[in-house]
Structure formats: structure tokens, C-alpha cells
Hints:
The protein is mostly helical. The protein contains three helices and no strands.
Amino acid sequence: MIFDRLSLKQRVLIQVGMSVALQGFVISGTLLDWSHSTVILGSLGIGGFLLWLYLDSAMSTSRFVVTLMAGAHRMGGGDLTVDMPSFGNSTVREGLGTMQLLQERIRSMMRTLNEGANEVSTAASEIAAGNHDLSHRTEQGSADLQAAASAMRDMTDAARQSSEAMGEAAN
């Protein structure tokens, strides 16, 4: 992971350049009649460097994919508290930055949803309080109406009795 800061294009150019250098080394050694051991040892050295470069690229790619998958798994599980790390070359940083941007947008949406849920909860509480007040006033109005109806019955009964008493007194 020594070449972490190299872009993908730079890595490919180095790998292609080293492959061409290896072929050029073997061809030059053959044409210039170098000893077999010199050509073999030089080829092994250049080939070893190429292998190391490929392995370094593979480890960097693996680290990127593992980090990206761990972040996606964590966010999929609902944990939006940990930011995505930023490391590697520009391509890797861009990929991780995109995942971080996604996470920030999800956080923002969750905040908006929570605020909306709080507003709905507050409105529901206010409606419930209004319903309770209306129910109390309706019950009070009903009781007052029943009392008025009872008083009217009593007045009607009293008027009837007065009328009957006057009718009897007149006879």
C-alpha cells in the first residue's frame, strides 16, 4: 500500500511501463549476449517488482472494497453515526466521499422525518386537548339543558296545577 496516493491511471502506467521494461531487458540481454544468469536474475528482479506492484494494488483495492462494504452494512443497519474514512488515491477517496455524501443525505432525511413526526405528535396532542375541552363543554351544556328541561317541566306542572285550582275555584 505504498502506492496508495497514486491514481489508477498512474498505477496502470507504471505497471505497463515495467512490463515493457521487463521485455526490453530480456530482449536487450539476448541481443547483447548477456549471460543467462544476468538475464534471469534481472528478469526476476523486474518481475518481482511487478508482482509487488500488482499485490499492492490488490491490497489497496481490497481495503477500499472492505471499507465500502462495512460502511454500507453499517448504514443498512441504521447506524449513521460513524463517518466514512478518507484514504488512498483520488479514485478511492472519491468513492468513499460519495458514500459519505450518501450518509449525510440520509442523516438529513432522518432529521426531516423526525421533525415532521414531532410536529404531527404536537398537533395530535393539541387536537386531543381540543377534543377533551369540547367534550367537557358538551357535557356541561347537556347538563345545563337537562336542568332547564326539568325546570320547564316543574313550571308546566305548576301552571297546570294553578289552572286546575282556578278552574275548581270558579266552579
